[in-house]
Specification:
By secondary structure, the chain is of the alpha/beta class. Helices cover 34% and strands 18% of the residues. It has 11 helices and 9 strands. The strands form 2 sheets. The chain has a 7-stranded mixed beta sheet with strand order 3-2-1-4-5-9-8, sandwiched between helices. Strands 6-7 form a two-stranded antiparallel ribbon. Helix 4 runs antiparallel to helix 8 and helix 10 crosses helix 11.
């Protein structure tokens, strides 16, 4: 769960002057509680929470009977920072990447004898991916995370109860920014064998995707022929610009446009890249609904050639 760039607007509670008006306009005039319930904010932990429960028990040492309360407490803290569906629906705890074949390729590389390869999670949020890798046997000193929101990183230490224990490097910085953010990101340059970025690229315009991807290339070890970037995001059967929240613009990809983007990145960086794209066969109820049904949840890989 990378940090999304746009915050939700403030809702106000609407009351009607009479019961008749209330009945007539109840669909369009909803209270904050009604709007949030089941849409942006849910009370019950989702059914796919078991992997994170297990991680919190085995990695963090939290007693089984205390895990759910611990999760709820951290969720409320994150909600105060960023009241978005990704927090309200507990998506910041997702470990779905462990079902990605490329995760296991990356894991094998990272735990191989005499391996010096490093791993970067872009938009790492609370760092659940990095803790899973550490639990799976990766030396945490070769794990890195970046997020725009430093308070997410801080909450991650409390969620996993490893402050002062993990050797993972966390960086608060903007993949599209300059100035101080650029200085913060210098620690990442030229070190990475694997970069993971989920729910990241689909937030941006084509131009900003180029900027972010070009920066990722700078983070990769230039002498590593097996360097790769992988993750998942929202794609489409009809690539192009889409309107996002608050009138923002973003570019969604199919396989052909994704390769075209990395061809352009290659020209800008003097590198060459091969991409793979696969649809993910799983319920995607949180995708924005549109009439033509073109949106897809896709898994991608980017490989040096």
């Amino acid at each position: 769960m990378n940090k999304l760039l746009l915050r939700l607007g403030q809702y106000s509670r609407c009351t009607m002057a009479s019961e008749e008006m209330d009945r007539k306009h109840q669909h369009n005039n909803r209270s904050l509680d009604h709007l949030l319930k089941g849409k942006v904010y849910i009370d019950e932990l989702p059914p796919d929470i078991e992997p994170i429960r297990s991680l919190l028990e085995k990695y963090s040492g939290i007693r089984t009977k205390d895990v759910d309360e611990h999760i709820y407490r951290i969720r409320e803290r994150l909600w105060d920072i960023y009241p978005h569906v990704s927090i309200g629906h507990f998506r910041f705890l997702s470990l779905k990447l462990t079902f990605d074949p490329l995760y296991h390729i990356a894991l094998d590389r990272l735990v191989a004898p005499r391996s010096s390869s490093s791993f970067l999670d872009v938009g790492c949020c609370v760092g659940q991916v990095l803790r899973q890798l550490a639990f799976d046997g990766v030396d945490s000193s070769r794990l890195y995370g970046i997020d725009l929101e430093s308070r997410f990183l801080d909450a991650g230490f409390d969620l996993f109860m490893d402050r002062g224990k993990t050797k993972t490097t966390f960086v608060a910085g903007d993949m599209l920014g300059g100035g101080e953010s650029d200085e913060n990101l210098q620690v990442l340059e030229g070190k990475m064998g694997v970069i993971h970025a989920t729910s990241f690229f689909h937030l941006f315009t084509w131009e900003n995707q180029i900027r972010a991807a070009t920066r990722m290339v700078r983070f990769l070890d230039p002498n590593d022929p097996e360097a790769m970037i992988f993750g998942r995001h929202v794609g489409t059967t009809t690539p192009g610009d889409r309107e996002g929240t608050g009138g923002s613009r973003k570019y969604l990809h199919n396989a052909e446009s994704w390769q075209s983007l990395w061809d352009e990145v290659g020209k800008l960086t003097g590198t060459s890249w091969r991409t793979e794209v696969n649809d993910i066969e799983e319920p995607s109820t949180h995708l924005h609904s549109i009439a033509d049904g073109t949106l897809r949840r896709i898994r991608y890989g980017v490989f040096r050639t």
